[in-house]
Design goal:
Blueprint lengths: L1 E12 L2 E7 L10 E2 L3 E2 L6 H13 L5 E17 L5 E15 L10 E7 L11 H9 L4
Parallel strand pairs: 1-6
Antiparallel strand pairs: 1-2, 1-4, 2-3, 2-7, 5-6
Amino acid sequence: MRQRTIVCPLIENEGSYLLCKMADNRGVFPGQWALSGGGMEPGETMEQALRREMAEELGEKLTITTITPWTFRDDVRIKTYADGRQEEIYMIYLIFECVAANREIVLNEEFQDHAWVKPQDLAKYDLNVATRATLTQKGLL
């Protein structure tokens, strides 16, 4: 079983949190709402990986003013690739609290939608189990 270290930003702007809806045909949680993030590449620091993932998935216009390491967790997930292939992966999640100065998002192909959500509305979304666990641990659910 392959192991991946995942950097995951919990991005807040003016009291709302960024959720992204996964593409229906790929990822670990197809079609569900999630936090952005992804795997660290060889030679990257955690912050370099986090900033790269945010730029790739959310675009260059989103301005992050604060990054604070917050918590970590692990589990085993089945990832579905765009070609339909699946793989079981041991995932280590490094979760960071991030503050955004704006809400300018340009999604890549991994996501089909995004929303800035007030804490009282988070439970209304079809959150994947990892995102639900993170938001519960943070006291937002």
